[in-house]
Amino acid sequence: MITQSGCNIVHASSLPWEEHARLDGKKYRAKSYWHDSENDLHMRLIDQPENLAVLQPVEHENAGGHAVVVLKGRAQADGLTLNALDVILGAGNEPHAAYPDSTGCQLFSCFQGRHEHTDKRHRLMQSAQTSWDAKAGGALHMKPLVADGAGRLMLTAMRLSAGFTVPVGSRPHMQAALVVEGSAVVGNATLRPWDFMYMASGVPHGPISFPEGATLLMVAMRTV
Asked: Per residue in 185-214, pLDDT tens?
């Protein structure tokens, strides 16, 4: 992790892969980007190999809520095909499935709270059903992926045109961003796909520029 202009930056290439097992015993691997201790929010990159099908659905319930976003590849859940920026939402203390069936995909996981399980269903949110909202004269487009249903957790997709710059500022709540496509420049650091930045609440940050444009996955926690 490095710090540039008030942003904490994590390059995916610097993180080791960690081996994990699902509830059904099948293996996957993950990289841990950040644990926001103030909100007890864990953010990770998950790599699910091909042919990781769930032969018998493993449904459960978590004390904490989480959202899993498809970044690349495809996944299957409840008979639906999930593509890039589609979301599997498991709100706290509501039943949901463990992981989608996979033909090989990368996922971004945001998990808040405790991981205890009891036997118990998820909700699927398909990005194509929500329109992009143009801002800043069309140089910025935004799409809410998770606006409610996950407590204070919010996820937003953002597309920025080449040459767009986020000015100096600060946020009233924590904010994190994963580069999905393109690049971002913060101080002397360049972020490429799967790289991550974290901005603490109330901490000023410098300008963030997008010389070739980018698609970002934004994570935030409501203050109330």
From this structure: 999 999 999 999 999 888 888 999 999 999
In this structure, what are the phi and psi dihedrals at residue 8, rounded to the nearest 5 degrees?
A: -90, 125
Q: Write the pLDDT tens digit of every residue in 130-189.
A: 999 999 899 999 999 988 777 788 899 999 999 999 998 877 888 999 999 999 999 999
| CA 192 vs CA 4, 68, 197, 198, 218: distances in Å | 15, 21, 11, 15, 15
> pLDDT tens digit string along 79-101?
788 899 999 887 544 444 444 45
Distant-in-sequence, close-in-space partners of 13: CB < 8 Å, separation ≥ 6: none
Q: Return the SS3 of 109.
A: strand
DSSP 53-92: --SS--EEEESSEEEEEEEEEEEEETTEEE-TT-EEEE-T
Q: What is the DSSP string of 132-154?
A: -EEEGGGTEEEEEEESSSSTTEE
Q: Which of 197, 215, 216, 194 is nearest to 205 (CA)?
A: 197
3-class DSSP state of 168: coil
> Distance between CA 83 and CA 74 in Å, rounded?
5
C-alpha 156, offset from chain centre:
9
Q: Closest Cα partner for 127 from 214, 192, 207, 67?
A: 67
